Design the sequence.
């Protein structure tokens, strides 16, 4: 396969392939699309994927057995439009340099139900709001924490969002498209505000007037 140096598209999804990604594949420098989803590949994602495939537009590693940290070299894929890492065993934080993906349309890092998850942690990065052309984001079933930052409302092309089943807290930023998503996009967190019926406004209990008067009399004594 490594001798196919002019190969631009490789689709091997939904087979029963296993093992690590062949190192000889890095000789296919012209690859634009690589789909090896729904197989049994394992191991770490090799650094050379980001170093060699600078023209890559589609990278689909969905539903395999990859594990470990996401290599920062992936951020060199500045032309990538679809990045699908769903249903593996990745862990660690999302690389901050994903703001290099200015042409990205689909970003999927989620896990699924047993037997396999991703375990990405940390906060939803502020720089995600810089990927202005993104249409789909799926970070569901990970271990992301903190608040949803306001700048995600800048993603005016966003038509699919799933942040469910993480450790997110606080209010959902007010913007037309975020409130337009179903509540299922945010369930399994500690979030409030539309589209949830639960308001984020803290309620302060009003003391009973009789008790308040008695307390005032005690203070005067």
Sequence:
């Amino acid at each position: 396969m490594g001798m196919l140096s002019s190969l631009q598209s490789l689709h091997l999804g939904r087979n029963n392939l296993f093992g690590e990604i062949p190192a000889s594949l890095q000789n296919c420098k012209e690859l634009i699309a690589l789909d090896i989803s729904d197989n049994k590949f394992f191991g770490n994602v090799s650094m050379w994927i980001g170093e060699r495939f600078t023209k890559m537009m589609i990278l689909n590693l969905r539903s395999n057995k990859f594990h470990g940290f996401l290599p920062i070299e992936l951020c060199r894929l500045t032309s990538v439009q679809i990045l699908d890492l769903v249903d593996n065993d990745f862990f660690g934080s999302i690389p901050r340099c994903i703001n290099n993906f200015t042409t990205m349309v689909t970003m999927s890092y989620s896990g699924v139900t047993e037997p396999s998850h991703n375990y990405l942690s940390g906060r939803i990065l502020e720089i995600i709001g810089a990927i202005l052309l993104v249409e789909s984001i799926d970070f569901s079933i990970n271990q992301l924490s903190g608040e949803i930052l306001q700048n995600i409302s800048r993603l005016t092309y966003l038509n699919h969002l799933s942040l469910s089943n993480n450790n997110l807290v606080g209010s959902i930023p007010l913007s037309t498209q975020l409130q337009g998503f179903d509540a299922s996009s945010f369930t399994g967190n500690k979030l409030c505000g539309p589209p949830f019926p639960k308001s984020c406004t803290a309620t302060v209990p009003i003391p009973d007037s009789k008790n308040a008067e008695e307390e005032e009399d005690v203070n005067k004594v």
